[in-house]
Amino acid sequence: MSSTMISRRTLLAGLGALGAVGVLPACAGGAETAQRGGRLRAAFVAGGSQEKLDPHVLPQFADQARAKACFDTLGRWNQDMSCTPRLAESWESDATGTRWNVRLRPASFHDGRPVRSADVLYTYRRIADPATTATAAPLFSGIDFAASRAVGDTELEIVLGAPNFLFPVAFGSYGAEIVPEGTTDFSAPVGSGPFRFVSFTPGGPALYARNDAYWDGAPPLDELEFLPINDESARIGALLSGQIEYAHDIRATSAQQLGADSRAQVFAAPAAASQFLWVKHDRAPFGDPRLREALVLGLDRDALARVALLGRGTPGNDMFGTGLQYYPTAVPQRTRDLDRAKALVAETGVSTVELATGVTDPSWQSATQLVVAQLAEIGLTVQVRTVPPETYFADVRKTATFHFGRTGTLPIPQWIATGILSSRFENGFARYANPEIDRLYARATAEPDEAARASAIGQAMTLVHDEIATPVWGVSDWIVGANADVHGLDGHRPNTTDWANFSKVSLG
User: Fold this and answer.
1) Residue 161 CB neighbours (<10 A)
2) Contact assessment for residue 461 and residue 321, using Cβ atoms and an 8 Å cutoff
3) 58-95 as b/e: b if 16+ CB within 10 A
4) What is the spatial distance between Cα 438 and Cα 435, in angstroms, rounded to a whole number?
5) What residues contact residue 460 under an 8 Å CB cut-off, 6+ apart?
């Protein structure tokens, strides 16, 4: 099978048609003036002194970006969330959806060893091992590793314990980067990506150098450096002063500032992130469904989108994946109902709740102020706890009962698998589980008929909405800033292969 022809059983597309992405007005960045050489310095919110370079444990966007520089995956997630081959040359299932044949393209690790089938099987076994605590573990836990095998160095057969016609979506996931067989130490990681590891200080810089042997062509940049700058205004200042060339994750107000400055350019991906107000279902006070209903009815989503997102976003409807395939568009939009919300709060007897927030997302500061004021109108006093970005997600997963969260674009089936299934209860932000959702998901993945699959996933998402499992208050744009001399960037949705990917970027 050629690298450009995939059988009709192969999943290459069909995970959603999304809106356009691109550059905000008055911005440039064409590759026609690309020059070879130089070091690009990219600033991200980072995870502090506990950071590691294990590509399978990726709690922060900075971790994902560093992994993408050094490693590669079998597939790539495109902007429409379709998955197409990358390190893989092709993949194909049998008629049952339980056996997948994968062929690899010629590629090498940074130490010169070829990427082999044994490396892929080792990687997926490591990801599936609970001891790894891998981000993508649910996507690979269904593999029967005893039955799976390397057919040769460039061909493997992956056997699943149950039919899964959506399985190849996992090949493009973040946290599914291929590592050399036997790798356990990532202090000086060896990957097959566009940049080779040079140095790293946890909580500090990470430096990479061009991989001249990269299978997809050597990057124009000599070096790529990741720098931790957690404060958004500090990232903007560093960009304008020339201390960095790329500022990840900026507010709409900062985008306006940079767009009017000849030293900078701005790139945006519309409707690229779901903004959550997570509540824990397994503990007081949000174990009470009446309080969860009061919360979602008490929110003024239009005001949140208008003020917190500054018009660069839309109201959410308590479901992830607005605009993606399988999103149940027939579910009515939730609107504010103050009278009903007040009555429900009174019934519960709850008067005070704690809200955890932080600076991980630049919109959360203003959103926090709005949520506090809006919930006060329904009789809830909100005590705000600010969590440092270095420990934010680990902290709120364990200790918070009510907190902000954000998820970039993902295929809806992946979002269900990694965050909603009962198997994710202990690690989930919501501590929510529903056996009916598990059943619907299993039915969807085992279903070769697309219409039946869509129906099952739509039913599962409707249950998420009706049980107020994961309240989503808004859907926001994803915005980054860059120096005017940076070429080869565009507005890419987070989690896609092209997002935070500097392999084609140049300076000058």
Assistant:
1) 11
2) yes
3) bbbbbbbbbbbbbbbbbbbbbbbbbbbbbbbbbbbbee
4) 5
5) 416, 420, 436, 437, 440, 441, 444
Residue found by looking up tokens 């219409």 in the block: 451
Is residue 64 classed as helix, strand or coil in its secondary structure? helix
Work out the number of other CB atoms within 10 angstroms of the CB of residue 399: 13
Pairing of strands 149-152, 99-104: unpaired
Tens-digit pLDDT profile for residues 181-209: 999 999 999 999 999 999 999 999 999 99
Kindly give the pairing relationship between strand 381-386 and strand 352-357.
parallel
Q: What does the radius of gyration of the chain's CA atoms come to, in whole angstroms?
A: 22
Measured CA angle at 391 (ends 499, 366), to 5 deg: 70
The strand pairing partners of 207, in sequence order, are 199, 225
Exposure string over 413-424, b if 16+ CB within 10 A, otherwise e: bbbbbbbbbeeb
Single-letter amino acid code for the residue at 489: L
CA–CA distance from 472 to each of 278, 320, 407 (Å)? 8, 7, 10
Structure tokens of 463?
């249950």
Which DSSP category does 63 fall into?
Answer: H
pLDDT of residue 279: 98
Contact between 261 and 480 under an 8 Å Cβ cutoff? The reply is no
**Cα separation, 282 vs 424, whole angstroms:** 13
Amino acid identity of 284? Answer: A
Q: Which residues of the chain have pLDDT under 50?
A: 1-33
Q: Count CB-CB contacts under 10 A for residue 321.
A: 26
* Inter-axis angle of helices 338-348 and 289-298, nearest 10: 150
Q: Decide if 287 contacts 281 (C-beta within 8 A).
A: yes
Measured between alpha carbons, how far is 48 from 43 in angstroms, rounded to an integer?
A: 14
Residue 302 is encoded by which pair of tokens? Answer: 């239009």
What pLDDT does residue 34 have? 55
Q: Determine the 3-state secondary structure of 163 from DSSP.
A: coil
Token pair 């810089």: residue: 205
